[in-house]
Design goal:
single chain; about 80 residues; alpha+beta; 1 helix; about 15% helix
Length: about 80
């Protein structure tokens, strides 16, 4: 089990009363973390989101560190 600090950005930050928030993740990958987050935070079910660790967007199979993870809503731009 990993203790992770989640920091929500954009529209997500309005939905989390305590930001950043601590999260216990049983898995060790970004894919596992996403699944566990969707179970806990209903609003993530229908919204694509990205996770970043050490200022880099993570891939699903990438391993997590016990660090701060940034949670980004969909974004666009050029």
């Amino acid at each position: 089990m990993r203790k992770i600090q989640l920091r929500f950005f954009g529209q997500f930050s309005d939905r989390i009363p305590q930001n950043p928030t601590n999260f216990l993740c049983q898995g060790n990958s970004f894919e596992a973390l996403k699944k566990e987050m969707i179970e806990k935070y209903d609003f993530l079910k229908d919204v694509p989101f990205q996770l970043a660790q050490n200022q880099k967007i993570g891939k699903d199979n990438e391993l997590l560190e016990e660090a701060e993870i940034a949670v980004f809503p969909p974004f666009s731009g050029g």
